[in-house]
Amino acid sequence: MINTQDSSILPLSNCPQLQCCRDPSLSALIYKDEKLTVNQDLPVHDGKPHIVHFQYKVTEVKVSSWDAVLSNQSLFVEIPDGVLADGSKEGLLALLEFAEEKMKASYVFICFRKSREDRAALLKTFSFLGFEIVRPGHPCVPSRPDVLFMVYPLDQVSSDDD
């Protein structure tokens, strides 16, 4: 979960792209179905990065939550510290589908601290899902030597039928 405290990998309060008068108590529902609910923090300024919250209903009482930043057709998802909750894989797959089909994102980046004890397992899991390691210095990700970024390129097929 993206955290606005100092422990966050993507420090939203320090991100120059997100220094618009953000009030985390203001959010708008942008999508809801039986399993997936998507909200975004307000205000949203065209072309500016903004925060998106995904909640995936695993069972009647269990919800998998992912917070992200949408910027320049790329969605950045911070993997929360600690053990991933049951249903996280299904929630992430729903997030990827929504990012591709509804948000028209080109890439989904995930990030987590390199010091995590489960780093090898996370690398294996996300690689299996189709994510690739992003090399340090990549222009789309912040310079954070303590953080590992992986990217999932989304297939955006342009239609000639329009």
Automatic annotation (TrEMBL):
Alphabetical list of Gene3D superfamilies matching this protein: 3.40.630.60
Any one GO biological process: positive regulation of protein catabolic process
Superkingdom of the source species: Eukaryota
SUPFAM superfamilies, A to Z: Acyl-CoA N-acyltransferases (Nat)
PANTHER family: ORNITHINE DECARBOXYLASE ANTIZYME (PTHR10279), ORNITHINE DECARBOXYLASE ANTIZYME 2 (PTHR10279:SF6)
Family: Belongs to the ODC antizyme family.
Protein's UniProt name: Ornithine decarboxylase antizyme 2
Species assigned in the record: Podarcis lilfordi
Lineage: Eukaryota, Metazoa, Chordata, Craniata, Vertebrata
